[in-house]
Amino acid sequence: MSGILPDPTADLDWSGYAGAIHEIFHKNALAFPDRPCVTETKTPTSPTRAYTYRQIDEASSTIANYLHDSGITNGDVVMIFAHRSVELVCAFMGTLAAGATVTVLDPLYPPQRQQIYLEVSQPKALISIGKTTDENGPLAPLVQKYIDEELSIKSRIPDLRLNDDGILSGGKQDDNDSDIFDAIRGKVSSPPDVLVGPDSNPTLSFTSGSEGRPKGVLGRHYSLARYFPWMAQRFNLSSDSVFACLSGIAHDPIQRDIMTPLWLGAQLLIPAKEDIQHEKLSEWMNAWSPSTAHLTPAMGQILVGGATTKFPALRQVFFVGDVLTTRDCKVLRKLGPSCNIINMYGTTETSRAVSYFEVQSAAQDPTALDQLGDTIPAGWGMKDVQVLVVSQADHTKMCGIGEVGEIYIRAAGLAEGYLGDPEKNKEKFINNWFVDNITWVEADKANDKGEPWRRYYKGPRDRLYRTGDLGQYLPSGAVRVSGRIDSQVKIRGFRIELNEIDANLSGSPLIRDCKTLVRRDRNEEPTLVSYIVPEISEWKRWLEAHGHEDVEDEGVEMGPSVVYLKRFRRMQAEVRDHLKTRLPVHSVPSIYIVLQKLPLNPNGKVDSPNLPFPDAALMMEDASEEDLKSWEKLSETEKTIATQWSTLIPGLNAKTIKPDSSFFDCGGHSLLAQQLLLTIRKSLDADITIGVLYANPTLGALSTQVDRLRNGQAVTVDKSADTVYSDSFNELINTLDAKYESADPDALSPSHGATFFLTGATGFLGAYLAKDILDRKNTKLIAHIRGAKDLAFAKDRLTRSLKGYGLWQDSWADRISCVLGDLSKPRLGLDDVSWKHVADTADVFVHNAAYVHWIARYEQMMRSNVLSTIDAMKLCNEGKRKLFSFVSSTSTLDTDYYVQLSQEQTATGRGAVLEADDLQGSRIGLGTGYGQTKWVSEQLVREAGRRGLRGAVVRPGYILGSRHGGVSNTDDFLIRFCKGCVQLGSRPRIVNSVNAVPVDHVAHVVIAAALNPLPGVNVVHVTAHPRLRMNEFLSALSYYGYNVPEVDYEEWKTQLEEFVSAGSVEKDQEQSALMPLFHMATSNLPSTTRAPELDDRNAVAVLKADADRWTGVDDSAGEGITREDIGRYLRYLVEIKFLVPPTGRGRELPPIAADVAEAQAQWSVGGRGGAA
């Protein structure tokens, strides 16, 4: 293990008890009684109130003695009905001095939640702060009834108030006018003589539990004071520090707010609630000059959001409780230029045992944030605290640098556990399996000096707290949190990381704050919803730059939120476009709700349950007067289609749709597009194809095409679409370099090694390409990764992909590196450093990535698929000389010309379509934008070959699962076809041959062609040996027991249309697997799936050369798909629950390795493959 990573067997000073915090505070009060201790700053109804250490100590001692005399003893819980005030500090310290356990009841919590706190804690004493009752009234009847009837209360302090002169009152006696504290006024100088120890329980804090029921976490005295000496030294804290009390009063960080200054002998400032608001808080910070504050990131938003007032006295801000973004830090550094930002990672369960990452102030280091990415790392464990990142696959192993695992906290200061929940304690507080605890027990016995506190000490307990967070070690040894184990969601078959969406949203300058959730829409479908808070100043600049005027909109109050319905419509489209450049399409939310601010719970965290639901937030949208005038001008067809859009797209008001509104900009996607076309077919009797919709996405254009069909005319076809791609090639050929330098293949060998640069490495084929590369001797891999926030995240994504497909080998870790990029951007999205690194390092460039979409037009795909290929070849021409392999597709041959050519040549004995064919037979007529982009790219690569580039164009057909493991791409057309037939209960009779090859063989051909190219650039066909026919392929379903009788294609097509048109019978019924490809499945498949026979002599040549020079294994005979292979694919699909098991009579599905499906489930792969 690297020396910079923590050693999970190290001694963490298990018996290093530093004393009880209330005892240390009392000593401080005796040492400097007149020093300022707690100051309540002025409120609208009261002046500033300031108290010394002696006054706070005497008030605390009064409470402690009263509780003690009332029978309160060690382990009893004292509940405080709380208020942010000096009385809260006194109640806290008094309860601790009585040896009891303090817990807080927030008056802002609903009565039902307050009752749960009482049920869990079973308090023996109640303290009501007078100001709490003044502002919030008495306890709710439900709560009071529970106290009176269900609890055994020993002591009550009904009206706690600290007078201006420091005299404490607790409320009147039941039988007279005297105060309850009058009888013990003589004991104010010292607390009762109560012994506590490291394992006494001073606090009971609540945290969210399963099924929404809060759980009580018992703290330990060990941790309350244990880490203060180190923190004081490390962060320059002293008795001169001035602390701000800003944490939620029932949130455990309030304990740190109170106890830190009292341990130091410093001062605590308590602001009025009116000052804890946007803009007001920064003004308070400026006026009162605290040097130190503890904040949640959400509270930090309140401090800096919209603020202009600086607070130069602030020296340290400790952030806890949530992800801290660099964007928020940048604003904070502007307003507090001398402020160091310390991001602290921990939980209620870890008490004070946390990690830290310090960002130096802007005054000390103006560039401190430049290399940190979107979020601040969790950092390193404090003194005697370890942040362990443990392998998810094998918990006995620590993760290496860059590898994502589960985060455990190891420390002597962990909480005791959950009150009354031993099963949860076993799950979350785990004995350290890396070392035998007896080691520490024996060491403690040797050091036992008979200290009194050992009466309340259970001895050393080497425990780990399982956080449920995912993270990875950075090269510095710091930890970055990358998400939650339970934060992944699955929508429309795709696994989505909500934190990744928020991280990319935060990258937009238009957004100040955000939160993405999965909510069910009005159709009870799970939908991604992003709640965003706009950065108003940036928004106004954006409007001015784009020639737009701001819209008047005060928003609508919905619970604790103010929702903007009109003002930020353009922002929603802009944000959607921002995400489209950074995330896969399925991860882009369909609904954006713009709020004035995110609601916070009393603990200062985002109150997710109270964010407005999509229906409530979006259905209230009203059409403006301008909208209504525009609506009246629409034709009946436009009104009908607009209404259909609004029915399909959540929150869309039909009367706000204009003729130039695009279906896709309004929130439509490919699945909704299919449903729209079915609706148009049924309601308007117009059979619009998906291609027509993509060519005419606006309301006006689409309505015009519908009207033409209804009037007996053909749809208007853009004749230039047939030649747009070849015309584009004629222009782009002029952008190629005049000459290309290439590497000598003979210079690369197992003895000399080779470094590969691979795009699309995380896709289905990409994973197997990586495997083929890394299985060879002396090879290294540089992977181009899109959408990752940093290099560690990028490497983790690649590792997870390889593990998910069951391919990963630990020995590869040191041979893999990553660069961040994006095919949709110039120079592959690489920064200058990465571009130069690849140019100077790589020997072979394998360009596998592409934007794969069977509907999008050429113009939409050109940047990612064509221009990226030109840039790829430019990279080959810089730095080290390279070989180039381009992964194309047989979709470049999808014209009638090549089908007829194949039939003619086969019939006359001249063979199949040659690899040397010039592709002029598909210069026009290719039907998909994807095929068109591959055609142009092929022609450009082959032209570069004529100018000196050395490499290959590899053309695979259908890429199916691996031969050995059965691992399959669930988004493949043939796999979806199988599932669609199972769902429908029938299969069509189609006799065309299917050019399908196992993915591992395709990968082998690609890498063999890259390392052993023929002179220039030559095409290499990957064709099946032998080929199955479609009816043979689908008949395997029946062979293995699926009830899918073969029917005529037209009958099957009708069944499919009826199935899809009927919609879901039940809320959770699965949608047809063919829905995303419905247009293909119903577009005369017997004709459209005809494929030419392909010559593959070049493939044979490169495979033979590869066997001679690299692998020693001759695979030149090629591979195809057998019925047993299909059985393995079906088994895999059943195991990962993509497909239901067969129930009819048939052969048993072939076995596959037991860990293959488990890997898919754990590492979340199996969806779309090949995209960048």
From TrEMBL:
Keywords: Amino-acid biosynthesis, Ligase, Lysine biosynthesis, NADP, Oxidoreductase, Phosphopantetheine, Phosphoprotein
Span list, region Disordered: 191-213
GO MF terms held by the record: L-aminoadipate-semialdehyde dehydrogenase [NAD(P)+] activity; ligase activity
UniProt-listed Enzyme Commission number(s): 1.2.1.31, 1.2.1.95
Pathway: Amino-acid biosynthesis; L-lysine biosynthesis via AAA pathway; L-lysine from L-alpha-aminoadipate (fungal route): step 1/3
Residue ranges annotated for the Carrier domain, each copy included: 632-710
Gene Ontology biological-process entries: lysine biosynthetic process via aminoadipic acid
Protein role: Catalyzes the activation of alpha-aminoadipate by ATP-dependent adenylation and the reduction of activated alpha-aminoadipate by NADPH. The activated alpha-aminoadipate is bound to the phosphopantheinyl group of the enzyme itself before it is reduced to (S)-2-amino-6-oxohexanoate.
NCBIfam families with a match to the protein in the record: AA-adenyl-dom (TIGR01733), alpha_am_amid (TIGR03443), Thioester-redct (TIGR01746)
Name of the protein described by the UniProt record: Alpha-aminoadipate reductase
UniProt organism field: Emericellopsis cladophorae
Lineage of the organism: Eukaryota, Fungi, Dikarya, Ascomycota, Pezizomycotina
